[in-house]
Amino acid sequence: MKGLSTKGLSLAYDGVSIIRDLNLVIPTGQISALVGANGCGKSTLLRGLARLLKPHGGIVYLDGTSIVNLSTKEVAQRLGILPQSPVAPEGLTVRDLVAQGRYPYQNWLQQWSAKDERIVKQALEITDLLELADRALDTLSGGQRQRAWIAMALAQDTDILLLDEPTTFLDLAHQIEVLDLLYDLNQHQGRTIVMVLHDLNQACRYADYLVAVKDGRIFTAGEPKQVMTEEMVQEVFSLECRVVTDPVVGTPMCVPIGRKGESKLQTKYSSN
Q1: Residues 6+ apart with CB under 8 A from 118
Q2: What are the E-state strand segments in the chain?
Q3: Measured between alpha carbons, how far is 105 from 111 in angstroms, rounded to an integer?
Q4: Domain ranges of the chain
Q5: pLDDT at position 139 over 60
Q6: What is the arithmetic mean of pLDDT over 106-128?
């Protein structure tokens, strides 16, 4: 079976269980978003899917094979991951960073090739970084740097991309810039994308499939219209809200109530 899935997956740090007996099938060729409160296990799950964290129990399947039975090179040629807040050596250029995506294809018999050069150039073009290729990474804006890291993941030429909070520390304009890029990659290249997102409304707008995680387990999963309910937000985030329709794209939109909103609601209903 093509794609990424888990069966009875359990993950732990220093003997402390984080993910417990989790069964999940990532829809192939779609965008999936992992959502949940801080500390619920989203990033841990992503690391487990990427084989960066050894399972405490259960199995991660990559294209129907247990991922632990695949070599590091095989995994890197099928699955790319962008960790949270990646750090590059000082002075590294954009082109040099993106070229690192081709390392899984290099060995002492096969050195840098014309194909590698073509794929790196293509990744720079897709992310609109060709003109910045010779700039040092640390001279770029936050959105440009994030695009560069995504370009490196693209240069791996994998069908699956895993991204841990790709919009963290970016202003709103750069967040949309990165999410639009990922959406285009999915729509035009059919890449399977799994990303951890904090913003529920962005998750609903850009993802085809939502996985709501609570206390290391899947609370619910499905299309945004199925998953994004006031009850789910209350249970998973301990937050009262109203779910309305996004006026731009028609997806569910979470409107938190909070104390100020609560007082307005009380005023509204007491006047009726």
Answers
A1: none
A2: 4-13, 16-25, 31-35, 57-62, 65-66, 79-82, 160-164, 192-196, 209-214, 217-222, 241-245, 252-256
A3: 8
A4: 4-270
A5: yes
A6: 85
Dist. CA 6–CA 58, nearest whole Å: 8
Q: What is the pTM of this model?
A: 0.86
CB 66 within 8 A of CB 60: yes
Instruction: Please check whether residue 5 is in contact with residue 61, taking contact to mean a CB–CB distance below 8 angstroms.
Output: yes
Q: Is CATH 3.40.50.720 correct for 4-270?
A: no
Cα 156 to Cα 26, 84, 88: the distances in Å are 20, 18, 17
pLDDT tens-place string over residues 122-133: 999 988 899 999
Q: Which of 112-116, 129-133, 155-159 has the lowest mean pLDDT?
A: 112-116
Asked if 123 and 94 count as a contact pair (C-beta separation under 8 A), the reply is no
Closest by CA position to 52, among listed 86, 24, 25: 86
